[in-house]
Design brief:
Mean pLDDT: 91
Number of helices: 5
Largest sheet: 3 strands, antiparallel
Low-confidence stretches: none
Order of helices and strands: HEEHEHHEEH
């Protein structure tokens, strides 16, 4: 009886060691290797400008000032450690008040009719970290950015068009504009 128990225990120990080597060492090393082969895609797709990392293509950030396109609101101030929505429901009086306040603020800043303010200017994304805005929100901001930077408004609108990404695979999601990349393009135009 004891030899059977010892044989089964030894078989279990061998299985544990083999699976630990494969799943605890081999698999993580393989995933790390594939990630390294993908380059910046596995490192959060950092955006470099003048030799320094200024943000990520995957994470939104706050831009203040009239010369910049503004991101959509974030319930967590773009804190990656607190990624979450506000959890306010569509009938919440607090959310309705916040949306009305944002609508008035954006309409005033953009000299626009409050009815023309797109939804993404009023509400945050589910994660609070979305780096994109809708082309409509970018177009709404173009006149302000042009006036603040001294660029021709058509030049700014062309930059918006150049930085508008279509639907993934042609049918998934909605077109969007990466705010960081658009602001860097505006900065480059101001330099030239």
């Amino acid at each position: 009886m004891l030899p059977d128990l010892a044989r089964q225990s030894l078989a279990g120990l061998r299985a544990l060691l083999v699976l630990t080597a494969i799943l605890g060492v081999g698999y993580p090393v393989a995933v790390w290797g594939v990630g390294q082969a993908l380059g910046d895609r596995a490192a959060g797709q950092p955006v470099r400008h003048d030799g320094q990392v200024v943000g990520s293509r995957l994470l939104g950030q706050q831009f203040e000032g009239e010369e910049w396109f503004h991101s959509r609101p974030s319930a967590n101030d773009y804190d990656t450690l607190a990624s979450a929505p506000s959890n306010l429901g569509p009938s919440s009086p607090d959310l309705l008040d916040l949306v009305a306040e944002r609508r008035a603020t954006v309409a005033d800043a953009e000299s626009a009719d409050p009815a023309d303010v797109p939804a993404d200017a009023l509400t945050g994304s589910g994660s609070g970290l979305d780096p994109h805005i809708s082309p409509a929100y970018a177009e709404l901001q173009a006149a302000r950015v042009a006036a603040a930077t001294g660029l021709d408004e058509q030049t700014v609108r062309d930059l918006v068009a150049d930085h508008t990404a279509g639907r993934v695979l042609g049918f998934l999601g909605e077109p969007g504009v990466n705010v960081l990349e658009l602001n860097l393009a505006v900065q480059e135009k101001m330099r030239s």
